[in-house]
Amino acid sequence: QVQLQESGPGLVKPSQTLSLTCTVSGGSITRGGYYWSWIRQFPGKGLEWIGYIYYSGSPYYNPSLKSRVTISIDTSKNSFSLKLTSVTAADTAVYFCAGEDRTGIPPPGTPYWGQGTLVTVSS
Amino acid sequence: DIQMTQSPSSLSASVGDRVTITCRASRGISNYLAWFQQKPGKAPKSLIYAVSSLQSGVPSKFSGSGSGTDFTLTISNLQPEDVATYYCQQYYNYPLTFGGGTKVEIK
Fold it and tell me: Which of A4, A20, B46, B73 is 20 to 30 A from residue A115's alpha carbon, by CA?
């Protein structure tokens, strides 16, 4: 069973860079058809998809965040990472890493989620 | 982006009731529609994918239907453990987008 675990600082100062890592266990991050995503949930509970990375392709980002986001992958560590630059209080949220399964017809969607980590942007 | 609109935003029902949540997409998404259940302090849990297919281990009291732009999640025989917020999500196009959520409570 694929499991994901986020790690990183829970407090980031305004204008700095938020950095999180997601470690995948129970399966290889290079498994075909699996897209590794970051999703965040604001205090008011709305969910926003940030972007994905595939082990053999370029990442894809939500256009609303594209200028500030970088998602990268480290196959040797079976992990992927998120960097969000120039953060403000509006970036305060619970950040989830997730695994989207695009195999099969129809594809099963996003069955794999980390537990989430709260990141607060404050001085 | 495809906008997902859920209704109602909250509902209260009695134990044993059948409840229905609706989700409308701003344009056609074929059958690329999923439903998630989220309990306080937990990650969303995938219940249903492709409109009506249950994820492994999800009880058959949950069911989904719909096509094109209008979709429904039905919970039969509501129990206290079903108290949660439910979200729809389209995965037809990137960026993936979610509905605003429906909070289900017991009356």
Answer: B73
